[in-house]
Amino acid sequence: MQVAENTVVSFDYTLRDEEGTVLDSSEGREPLAYLHGHGNIVPGLEKAMAGHSAGDEFQVTVDPEEGYGPYREELVQNVPRDAFQGVDNLEPGMSFQAQSSAGPMIVTVKEIEGDEVTVDGNHALAGQPLDFSVAVAEVREATPEEQENGEIAG
């Protein structure tokens, strides 16, 4: 069976940056499973999966526009330190959920200077091409419940 709309796909992967550094991998874990055609993985990888079958191995580079999006400077903001009340040891690299005009979003502390904190609402991989090595483990038809819910059961 080939990967197509409303199939459940399980695959192993390694994600590298442009320099070849491994950013994420399913090695040592169960394959990642998703419902194809429902936006459950980055769009560029989902497009590249289409037509493949169990046992296929391939590599694909996903451009930022079809990955985690371009890096958006407007998502970097300076906020007062007192916006982090209850956080005693605020440090760069810490992530928090924040409310924005578009709803909740995750922001990461980039820098702290005195009473001013620079936060970044971009995904950590925004603006970067994503190099995937993929091995398709299994492809099956989605159940009616999975199709209705837009995600795999369990």
Automatic annotation (TrEMBL):
SUPFAM superfamilies linked: FKBP-like (SSF54534)
Protein's name according to its UniProt entry: Peptidyl-prolyl cis-trans isomerase
Keyword Transmembrane helix attributed: no
Gene3D superfamilies: 3.10.50.40
Purpose of the protein: Also involved in hydrogenase metallocenter assembly, probably by participating in the nickel insertion step. This function in hydrogenase biosynthesis requires chaperone activity and the presence of the metal-binding domain, but not PPIase activity.
This protein's record includes keyword Isomerase: yes
Places the protein is found: Cytoplasm
Annotated family: Belongs to the FKBP-type PPIase family.
EC number: 5.2.1.8
Organism: Spectribacter hydrogenoxidans
Annotated GO MF terms: isomerase activity
Reactions mediated catalytically: [protein]-peptidylproline (omega=180) = [protein]-peptidylproline (omega=0)
Domain PPIase FKBP-type: 6-83
Key words of the record: Chaperone, Cytoplasm, Isomerase, Rotamase
